[in-house]
Design goal:
There is one protein chain. The chain is mainly α. It folds into two domains: 72 residues, no CATH class; 100 residues, no CATH class. It is 71% helix and 0% strand. The N and C termini lie far apart (84 Å). The N terminus and C terminus are likely disordered.
């Protein structure tokens, strides 16, 4: 019984020493990561502050909100990270169209059709996708030609009024 107790005591002491060493390594590693976080935060903050001085349309508080949102995403949820990246690309596309055509795209209509396509059991053929892309180009060219100035793909909703429907029939993809 004394031998078993001695072995358990010795094993406990070894594990305790190993645990202390591991904690010391973790604390050291944590301090180093904190140093990197501090340095990178200062570098990025300084660079963005300089850029904001040149771009008066962006407010530091709004930039900070965007940074906090992006850095707070749970990176273990790969779908959420991918969705955030795709969402940024979509936002840039919508922003570009808005700037180029003078108005915002209909976000609700985009999200509804995106969701429907994402959840669909049947995938659209590459040929059908190419036809849709060509159709967008045709619509944009026609809008430019008719107005002499670029116009939006659809007018945003105001006072609860429905948005104008685009010229693409969602049932036939034409």
């Amino acid at each position: 019984m004394k031998k078993i107790f001695s072995i358990i005591l010795a094993a406990g002491m070894i594990m305790s020493i190993a645990s202390c060493n591991k904690k010391a390594e973790t604390q050291q590693s944590s301090k180093e990561i904190d140093s990197i976080s501090m340095i990178l935060g200062k570098l990025y903050g300084t660079q963005i502050a300089q850029q904001l001085k040149q771009d008066s349309s962006a407010k530091a508080s709004e930039v900070l909100k965007g940074i906090k949102t992006a850095t707070s995403i749970d990176t273990t949820k790969h779908g959420k990270v991918a969705g955030f990246g795709i969402g940024l690309q979509v936002m840039q596309m919508m922003q570009s169209i808005g700037m180029q055509y003078g108005s915002s795209m209909n976000q609700k209509m985009f999200i509804k059709n995106f969701t429907d396509a994402l959840k669909s059991d049947s995938a659209m053929s590459e040929n059908d996708m190419m036809k849709m892309q060509s159709r967008i180009s045709i619509i944009l060219d026609r809008v430019k030609e008719k107005n002499g100035k670029a116009m939006p793909l659809s007018k945003p909703q105001q006072n609860g009024a429905p948005a104008q429907k685009p010229e693409i029939d969602s049932t036939t993809n034409k």
